[in-house]
Design brief:
mainly beta; 3-stranded antiparallel β-sheet; 0% helix
Amino acid sequence: AIAGPVTVCLRVAPGHPDRPRDWVVTLCLKGADGRWDNLTEGIARVPAAAEEVVVPLGDICVAPPAGARLIALVAGASYPRWDQAGAPGPRVIRDTSSVRLTLADV
């Protein structure tokens, strides 16, 4: 089971120097039947020069069934949930990014 705080640490390429950027992460559970369920999401607004972005997703408690997969979706906005404040344009996520979560013995 997963119980507790979830944080995503993105290693990114810097963007336009004068405009902040939004990073939105949605943690999903993909069931063995192909169904996707959103578990939690969060946003980080950072200076464009940032090369590391920490996105807190809050606390969750879930016991994924056998065959399920956790998937992190990353986007530059999630309007209308959050007003757009960041610069438009492509974003580059480096392969050294990670998701931190707490596993619980059940």
